[in-house]
Amino acid sequence: MSTFKAEIDVMPLEALLDPQGKAVSGSMKNLGLPEIGGVRIGKHITLQVEAKDKKTAESKVDEACKKLLCNEIMEYYKFSVSEVK
Fold first, then answer.
1. Which end of the chain has less Cβ packing within 10 Å, N or C?
2. Residue 8, CA distances (Å) to 24, 33, 61, 70, 76 in order
3. Phi then psi dihedrals of residue 71, to 5 deg
4. Other beta carbons less than 10 A from residue 13's beta carbon
5. How many helices (H) and strands (E) does the chain have?
6. Residue-wise pLDDT tens digits, 15-65
7. How is the chain split into domains, by residue range?
8. What pLDDT sits at residue 85?
9. Assigned CATH for 2-83
């Protein structure tokens, strides 16, 4: 068995309103940064998984995202997996 590290990004779907992102975008003007806009706020998750190979680790991470870490009705996810040396 090997240890793998997963880096997961969960973001709101583009078609949905992102109230947090909208509030931050609006605040940029007040901070003297009017050129910054279109902010979208999500989650970044890191975790470790024990697996026999990278493909198995990716499968487990995908399953965790679908079952717990991401609400696929409102969010999408992407991830990368690398072996911990």
1. C
2. 22, 29, 9, 10, 10
3. -95, 95
4. 14
5. 2, 3
6. 999 999 999 999 999 999 999 999 999 999 999 999 999 999 999 999 999
7. 2-83
8. 84
9. 3.30.1280.10
